[in-house]
Specification:
Elements lengths: L1 H20 L4 E15 L7 E15 L4 E16 L2 E3 L2 E4 L2 E19 L2 E18 L8 E3 L6 E12 L4 E10 L10 E12 L1
Antiparallel strand pairs: 1-2, 1-11, 2-3, 3-6, 4-5, 6-7, 7-8, 7-9, 9-10, 10-11
Amino acid sequence: MKKTALLFTFLLCGVVSFAQEVENRFQFGARAGVNFATITGDDFEDPNSRTSFYAGLVAETFVTEKFALQGEVFYSGQGFDIEETTFAGVIVTPEAEFQIDYIQVPLLAKIYLIDGLNIHAGPQFGFKINEEIDTDPTGDGGDFDTDSIKDFDFQLAAGAEFKLTGGFFIQARYTYGVSEVVEDSDAHNSTFSAGVGFMF
């Protein structure tokens, strides 16, 4: 965890250092919102999405008036929901959440179409920090540790954002995992997210 924290710090400092070297505007902020995450692929039968949240930090620098670069570091709750299955009236598999939590580090290119509105896209690097099956997501019990998901996930992210007055912004984004989350299995992270943020 210490090495991972150092890597995040290094990446964010790199974005800040780059911003300080250019003459254009630099902004630092925070963002948070809701995730609708699942795993997709030929080896998964479209499980229900897990609803969770994300929260973290943002650093943006303008290269030109209409083009900017943005780096982020944030926590992201992902995974999928497991439906209850029964056989002869007996519960075989209880309803549960397969929780896969990441620290995500996207590096995005942003194009401003009109004042305040931008579209953005770029690579995203996911570092798994937790993996478990939880049969009681709203309580303290029901947690079963697992170790089937790979520690690193490479994804592509794309979305849209609108900046409001006073530093606030709203945004929506979709990320898809290019790498397989399970070794030798056609299974990929798929996450829709929507939320708000504030630039200081």
